[in-house]
Amino acid sequence: MPDTGVRSLGTAVRGVLEEFEGGLLGHERLPPEHHLDRLYWQPDCPTVYCDRCGRSHPDAFRRCRACIDQRLPHHGVVRLAAYQEPMASWIRDFKFRRWESMGRLLGGRLGEACRRHLVDHQRAVDCVVPVPSPWLRGRLRGQDHCLIIAQEVSRVLERPVRSPLRQLGGLPQAHRSRSARLRRPNPFRSSYFGRSIRGRDVLLVDDVLTTGSTIRAASRVLLDLGVGRILVGVLGVSNPPRSPLRASQG
Ligand SMILES: [Zn+2]
Question: Less CB within 10 Å around the terminal CB: N or C of the chain?
Fold first, then answer.
């Protein structure tokens, strides 16, 4: 066999073994910092996205057309990145391949971004609130990914995690069409700890902001519980819908 043939066969075998090893061990072989450092990855500068809805906004006016005249229950959004590569793969592997160390690293980075935002706006939050998963889905997945993110944000901000919300069961958002997400009845309710956050300013934490319907629904229940200001922190914000004005209503 020619030398190059031996090398390509060796490369193929090594690739199969690495995939097998990856399936067994997940991404724990390499620390998540390696993946961020390898790409010189940095979180988005606040001037590249709308500070109200989180959508990418190249004009750097801090407020996009979708937000003009729109009443949103939250006061601002802090994001790490647009929901595109490499962030999209990191979040998916964190959620669906239990890459917890990456989730914790990104959660810490989100905490640092939120801290910079709060310092810039001379504000503070009293507690960190994760968007809850339905109880059954959390058991099936074996981890509550928003709680993991919230714990890391809480560690950086030195503010406690509170869980005043619970979510009723249903299909995961990723399985729903955009229109179905916007029509969905509010799946959030107050939890047993709901009354404990009355009058508090909260940082509401989610992994991905797509239509914004989840954040709006959770924020409405928080407002019903009497919270003060709501700041939203997310790892990724997806591209705007085709009709952003309609999508931001409701
Ligand atoms: Zn906006």
Answer: N
In this structure, is residue 17 part of a structural domain? no
| Residue 16 predicted with pLDDT over 60 | no
Domain contains 3: no
Query: Pairing between strand 230-237 and 202-209?
Result: parallel
Residue 107 alpha carbon to ligand 1 centre in Å = 23
Per-residue pLDDT tens over the stretch 188-228 = 998 888 888 999 999 999 999 998 889 999 999 999 999 99
- In the chain, how many domains are there? 1
What is the whole-number distance in angstroms between the Cα of residue 71 and the centre of ligand 1? Answer: 11
Determine the structural domain holding residue 151 and report its residue range.
Answer: 31-247
Single pTM value for the model:
0.80
Interval between CA 81 and ligand 1 midpoint (Å): 15
The CATH number assigned to the domain holding 135 equals: 3.40.50.2020
| Residue 16 forms part of a structural domain | no
